[in-house]
Write a structure and sequence with these properties.
With about 180 residues, this protein is an alpha/beta fold. About 20% of the residues lie in helices and about 35% in strands. The chain has a single domain, classed as Rossmann fold (3-Layer(aba) Sandwich), CATH 3.40.50.2020. The structure holds guanosine-5'-monophosphate (5GP).
């Protein structure tokens, strides 16, 4: 079913059911990979808030959670190079295994910025888990990107935490712009 948000129309791309299944599978992978560690999951706000909430429930061992807020979009549908650092990560991550949780990797600029910044704080390791990846839009490879929910075309999506002009974050499914 088509939906309208502000001036744009969107159609369904990934259903809630499929997101739930994939999130469970990623959670199991993380449980296996971090069985000898207490990882710190770093959610990148705002877009990842639903994904991280669902993913963390699949983690069956001790872990910590913290947040940072970055923005590379100012309401449009094309990524801007400038990154706004709205809320810094306040947790000490020295010698910790860090897993950054992202909603979507587009050009990769936001992640490169965040990874460079966190590396200076001397964590034991950094991995990235992103719900969505647009491989065609990625400007340079990101070695730390180890967990990806879904690879999608180079299209603008909303729902399940992702917004268009701050709306649509509450949608249970992911939609793409028509
Ligand atoms: P990048 O820096 O990789 O180009 O962009 C990453 C950020 O841009 C994401 O965290 C997200 O906030 C935003 N973004 C990129 N693509 C989309 C999209 O298709 N839809 C929405 N709503 N946001 C996007």
């Amino acid at each position: 079913m088509k939906i309208k948000i502000a001036d744009l129309e969107f159609e369904p791309l990934i259903s809630e059911k499929v997101i739930v299944e994939r999130t469970k599978a990623i959670g199991q992978q993380l449980n296996a990979d971090y069985q000898n560690s207490i990882p710190v999951f770093v959610g990148v706000l705002n877009g990842s808030f639903l994904f991280i909430a669902d993913l963390i429930k699949e983690i069956d061992r001790p872990c910590e959670i913290a947040f940072t807020k970055l923005a590379s979009y100012y309401g449009g549908t094309t990524s801007k190079l400038k990154i706004r650092d709205d809320i810094d990560l306040i947790m000490d991550i020295k010698d910790r295994d860090v897993v950054i949780i992202e909603d979507i990797v587009d050009t990769g600029n936001t992640l490169h910025y965040l990874i460079d910044k966190l590396k200076k704080r001397n964590p034991a390791s950094i991995a990235v888990c992103s719900l969505l990846l647009k491989p065609e839009a990625l400007l340079s490879p990101i070695e730390e990107l180890k967990y990806v929910g879904f690879e999608i075309e180079n299209e603008f999506v909303v729902g399940y935490g992702l917004d268009y002009q701050e709306m649509g974050r509450n949608l249970r499914d992911i939609y793409k712009k028509i």
